[in-house]
Amino acid sequence: MADKWSSCFLRWPEASADMINFSNSLMELMVALSVGYFTYDLLDLLYYKGFQSSWSLVLHHVVIMGSFSIALCTHKYIGYAICALIGEVNSIFLHARQLMLMMNYSKSCSTYKLNGVVNIVTFIIFRFGIMYHMSCWLYNHTPLIPPVLVGVASFGLLSMVIINIVLFYRLIQSDYLQVRNNDAKGNQDILSN
């Protein structure tokens, strides 16, 4: 599904040109399915990990669900939501990393290291790059958007920036600054905290 999200703007360049009004049924379906996925994952997180140990993911999910729900209810900003979904390309490598840790891969093994490099590169491009693009777009289009929605979008972007900076810091710390210590401890992962 990440392929469809990232190729959305290639298929429909109008979506990139008009992220407020342009949408079609496939784009709306992708956003609706994402709300469903994030809802399920939020309930799963709360049930199995609780709020204390996963507050950043809970906040991430709530912000995304709220923002995407506004887009679905108004039938506007679907292109903006699709743009946000492009950031999920990096989730492939974050999840692969988590699976490797669950399978007790050593952080010094070549597969883990390769995934780690791709993870960092895609994090910078697909998370930070997309958030930068979305921030610039929001700034340039503020006069066209109701003030309440500018506030919601600004809060959502600020939340995502903070969450992703914290996640990126934890990722760098876990995989590159404490590799020797974590291998000695049995691959404990600070990202799951």
From TrEMBL:
The lineage of its organism: Eukaryota, Metazoa, Echinodermata, Eleutherozoa, Echinozoa. This is TLC domain-containing protein 2. It comes from Holothuria leucospilota. Its main location: membrane. It is a multi-pass membrane protein. One of its GO terms (biological process) is regulation of membrane lipid distribution. GO terms for cellular component: plasma membrane. The chain crosses the membrane at residues 20-43, 55-72, 78-96, 117-140, 152-172. Keywords: Membrane, Transmembrane, Transmembrane helix. It comes from the Eukaryota. Pfam families: TRAM_LAG1_CLN8. SMART domains: TLC (SM00724). InterPro entries: TLC-dom, TLCD. Residues 1-180 form the TLC domain. It is found in: Membrane.
